[in-house]
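Sanity check

After download, print the first record. It should look like this:
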Amino acid sequence: MTTHGGFEPVFCTIVPPHVLDKLAQAEDPALAGPARRTLQRDAFERTQRRLTTVIGATAVAAVADGKPQRTVHDARHGTDLPGHKVRGEGDKPGKDATVNRAYAGLGATFELLLKAYRRDSIDGDGLPLKATVHYDRDYNNAFWNGEQMVFGDGDGEIFLDFTIPIDVIGHELVHGVTQYTANLTYFGQPGALNESVSDVFGSLIKQYTLGQTAAEADWLIGAGLLAPRVTGKALRSMKEPGTAYDDDVLGKDPQPATMDDFVRTGRDNGGVHINSGIPNHAFYLAATALGGHAWERAGLIWYDVLTGGELKQQAMFADFATLTVKAARERFGDGEELDAVSKAWEQVGVRTL
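Expected C-alpha cells:
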C-alpha cells in the first residue's frame, strides 16, 4: 500500500526543536548536555529518513484481521533499531514498566482506530505496530520514523520516561496514519496540520482510554512528561495554547491560539509544533461545544477529512477548515455539528473557503 500522493520520508518528534534549543543553552551542563545530544541524534535520524526509500513499513507482512500485531524492542541505551525483542503480541507483561506502557499504548491506539473509525491499524490494512524503548542515553524525545515508534527515557531532570503519557504514544503513531492517507507535507501550515492531527487523535486516544467526555478531559499533550523541577503541566495545551509551561530553563510555551498570533519562522520546519496550536484549539472548541465523547462526532469529522482523499499534501488551514465544514454537513446534515465546527474555525480566525 502506498501513501496518498506519493511517499515523503517522515521523521516526527514529540518534543519540538525550539524546546531543545532553549534547553541546550542552559548554564547547567546536566541540562544542556542531554538536550544537545538529543538535537544531534534527531538531526542524524532526520537525515537517515531522507536517505531511505522504503515506503512506510510495507516490507512487513500485514495481517488484516482486526487484531493488533505488537512488538516491543529494547535498544538497551544504544541507537541501533529496532533493538532486542522483549515483548510480542499476546505475551504477558514483564517487569519493565516502560515496555508494558509502550505495549499498552500501541494497543490503545489500535483499539480507538478500529472501534471508533473502523480502521485496521495505522495503514488501514493491519500493519504490525513496532516500538523501541530505552533508546540512547538521556534521550529527550520520542519519534515516529516512518516505520516504527521510538522512545527515550528522558534525562530525569527536565523530561521523564516518554512512554508515561499515552497521548505521546498515540500522537506519534497517528503520524503514521497521516503518512498513509493525506501525507501532509511537513512544513509550514501543512506541517502544522500534520502535527495538529497527531495532537487531536493523541488526545482522543487518552480520552477514550480514560472514558472521558470532552468536558472531563484536560486537553493537555504530554501531561506527566515534565520532571518535578519544571514549571509547567505538559508540552502543549489544546484548551489554552501558550499556557502549557512557563519555565526559567524551557522558556514560555510559544503556541498561538488564533491566527492573530500566527508565528512566522524558518525554525522547526516553519513552526509546525508552534502554529499547530491554532487548529488544535479549533478542534477543542468544536468538541467541547458538541459535548459527549469527542472521538465520536468531532473526531469522526476530522477523521473523514484526513482519510477522505480530498485533503491535499500542501493544504493550508483554510483548506482543512473548509473540508471539516463539508464533512460535518455530509455526515450529520445542517445541525449542531455543522454549527460547532464552523464557529470553532471562526473563533480561531481561520476563514473557510
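If your output differs, re-run the checksum step. Summary of this record's structure: The first strand starts at residue 12 and ends at 13.
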